[in-house]
Design brief:
The chain contains 14 helices and 19 strands. It is an alpha+beta fold and 496 residues long. It starts with a helix and ends with a helix.
Length: 496
């Protein structure tokens, strides 16, 4: 054989081996990358019970393992190199997308839990609008209800001393209401104001905001203990608190919506118990176990509202979810609207200029703004706050029905991401996933019922602890109604 021809063949074989070796190396690198992505995604999936329904997690894992094993065997045998490359690229993308989705879900849930671990209260020093005082250094003392809100007041005064070098003395008064009245009538120069009380004062006094000038502000951040738990993961109570604010969900505020969701996953029953915001109840913690409007419990923190309802019904609340106006509207928008039955016609004129008319019959609520208009109206309704509570429960029930549908559950990550800035909950992700998986596993629809406690309403006859001299509307609850509601909750929990 000619030497020239032999050299040509050797050179050709050398290039071929080089190409083959290069493909093998590339596939080996792809295999390692795929193994890492698939391994991390699988770990996150199992550690947080994601996709744990109808053996979907096992099927998904088996598919990833099969791809790994097949690719490894083919690489070792140096066969099907192009097939291996395509296979590894496709499933590396699948694993990467899965990893991103799982991580995003975990991060969003973490954010929801993180905001539930603390609360923020804006403490301020205020003076009359026409006051010449513009800085706290010009003051020697302030009026403040140290007996009712001592810790927050002390935190503000300490910050002022540290920041401004001023050690302000406090002239003690019984309430923020008394301090405000003294400020307006000229009996004092300045007062401390807890922002949570602003909505209470605003309802009782004309031109409240325009009467005040803020000269110092400090946000007091408090840790909220998280003792959320349930002895039976399939049976639990959730407190739903709807606060009367926009913006930061961590801001302490009144609770205008107070619902207990009693969930029994075994019987697929949900009972919604609505307690009117004006209910005259005993409020623990910052409420000093005195009687006041239920909505006022929220100014002492969500945990106080939770304890108030626990004491009222003789139950344990396992978790809570707190949402404001922003989150309510976003939730409706993310679900694509809901349909509810309306039993009395009314029209709402919003500050935005939009007008919504709700006729008798099925109403398609297509936007968050429309939903908020529907659930907030009470003056145009026959039974006032009772009918408003009934409308709120109708919308909540419609939301639950949509959230427990397959299309919504499979889109939980997107929904939670939309709401992460305006919802807080102490329910951990693993519990959320257990609920979603149980629902997806069974495919059964929940039977949702609702109830509300009733009583006798009056104005100015019952004394508010937070607003002792205010002429407020409050409801003296009927003991029989409360006992009946309590028993209904316990019946659902016991599977009756």
């Amino acid at each position: 054989m000619p030497t020239h021809s032999r050299h040509q063949r050797q050179h050709k074989n050398s290039r071929s081996y080089s190409r083959l070796d290069t493909k093998t190396i590339v596939n080996s690198v792809l295999l390692v990358l795929y193994a890492l992505l698939a391994g991390i995604a699988t770990f996150l999936m199992y550690s947080h019970n994601i996709l744990a329904f109808r053996h979907f997690n096992i099927i998904y894992t088996a598919l990833l393992v099969v791809v790994l094993v097949v690719s490894l065997v083919l690489i070792i045998r140096k066969k099907g190199k192009l097939v291996v490359t395509v296979l590894l690229v496709i499933f590396s993308i699948v694993a990467a997308v899965s990893l991103f989705a799982f991580k995003s879900l975990i991060d969003v849930a973490g954010d929801l839990n993180e905001t539930a671990s603390y609360s923020e209260i804006e403490m301020s020093v205020v003076v009359p609008t026409n006051s010449s005082i513009s800085d706290v250094t010009e003051l020697s003392s302030v009026q403040a209800p140290t007996g009712a809100d001592g810790s927050n007041i002390e935190a503000l005064l300490s910050q002022i001393k540290s920041d401004k070098g001023v050690d302000l003395a406090t002239d003690t008064v019984d309430s923020y209401q008394a301090a405000y009245e003294n400020l307006i009538n000229g009996s004092s120069q300045a007062m401390i104001l807890n922002s949570a009380y602003s909505s209470l004062l605003e309802l009782s006094y004309d031109n409240y905001e325009s009467n005040l000038k803020t000269i110092y502000t400090y946000k007091v951040k408090k840790n909220v203990s998280n003792d959320a738990s349930s002895s039976n993961k399939n049976v639990f109570n959730i407190y739903i608190s709807g606060i009367d604010t926009y913006g930061s969900i961590s801001t302490v505020s009144r609770s205008d919506v107070n619902l207990i969701l009693t969930v029994n996953m075994d019987t697929h029953k949900i009972l919604i118990t609505e307690t009117p915001r004006d209910s005259y109840v005993q409020i623990p913690d910052g409420g000093a176990n005195q009687y006041d409007k239920l909505t006022h419990a929220g100014i002492y923190g969500v945990e106080t509202s939770e304890k108030t309802l626990e004491n009222l019904y003789g139950i344990e609340v396992d978790y809570y979810a707190r949402l404001n106006f922003d989150s309510f509207m976003k939730l409706i928008d993310s679900l694509g609207g809901v349909t509810v039955y309306n039993n009395q016609a009314f029209t709402i004129n919003l500050d935005t200029g939009n007008v919504y008319s709700f006729e008798v019959g099925n109403v398609n609520i297509t936007s968050g703004e429309q939903a908020l208009a529907f659930v907030r109206e009470r003056y145009d309704l026959e039974r006032g706050d009772y009918d408003r509570g009934s409308n709120q429960m109708k919308v909540i029930q419609a939301i639950i029905n949509k959230l427990t549908s397959f299309s919504s559950i499979s889109n939980y990550s997107s929904i939670m991401s939309t709401l992460q800035d305006s919802v807080q909950t102490d329910m951990p992700l693993d519990t959320m996933m257990d609920l979603a998986n149980t629902q997806l596993d069974s495919g059964k629809k929940f039977t949702i019922t609702s109830q509300e406690v009733t009583g006798t309403g009056s104005t100015g006859t019952l004394v508010s602890y937070a607003m002792p001299t205010a002429n407020l509307y409050m409801i003296q609850l009927d003991d029989t109604s409360v006992a009946s509601a309590s028993q209904a909750i316990k019946d659902v929990m016991e599977g009756k």
